[in-house]
Here is the input.
Amino acid sequence: MVQPAVPKIHGIIAYPVTPFAPDATGGIDTTRLAALVDRLISSGVHAIAPLGSTGELAYLDESEFDTVVDTTIAAVDRRVPVIVGVSDVTTAKTIRRARYAERAGADAVMILPVSYWKLTEREIAQHYRSIGDAIGIPIMAYNNPATSGVDMSPELLVTMFDNIENLTMVKESTGDLSRMHRIAQLSDGQLPFYNGSNPLVLDALRAGRPDGVRLPPTCGRSPASTSMRRCAATTSRRPSSSTTT
Here is the structure.
């Protein structure tokens, strides 16, 4: 399989909440979701990532998942990259979601390792490899042990990056800055990774090296906040932290 091009993901990645209708149906409020996505883009974010932890991915059925994907991608209208969270409790279910996101027009998918039963590193790698073989867009490996119960080491993440063609980036949400340095060291600066811990935004930027290690942050969820504006200004001033290609 030809390795997919890594989309130009940099700066502020917004993770929208998933609004539900207040009536008895309780379905996805597509009007409010589209309005939220439009407001985020108009406020200056650089990418949209629906169905992350804040998007309640773990609690949606397949129809709701599909609706969020379709609504978000239509609202974005190719103004910024879209990274869709597609994690599920089995590899097969994750593949279904990843394929749906790809067909809908997602630029990349974000995936947690399978939770509940503790897997070996070999089994985790096989999970990602199977998904990678089933789709043709990039995968962002998502390391968030606080929610998944699985902690992928920097060594495992870099090994998967080296051996799975379309696993091309990592979101690291442990809040451990030393891991960011370790990933950069092990990959010789070749593995783009994204800081998922808001308090570490500036530290993650400072961890970048002048020879081109890319450490774009995911900072804030409210673009109206002062911290969001400062983050945008900071990333725009640091070329080594503003691109993944």
Q: What stands out?
A: Residues 13-236 form a domain with the TIM Barrel fold (CATH 3.20.20.70).
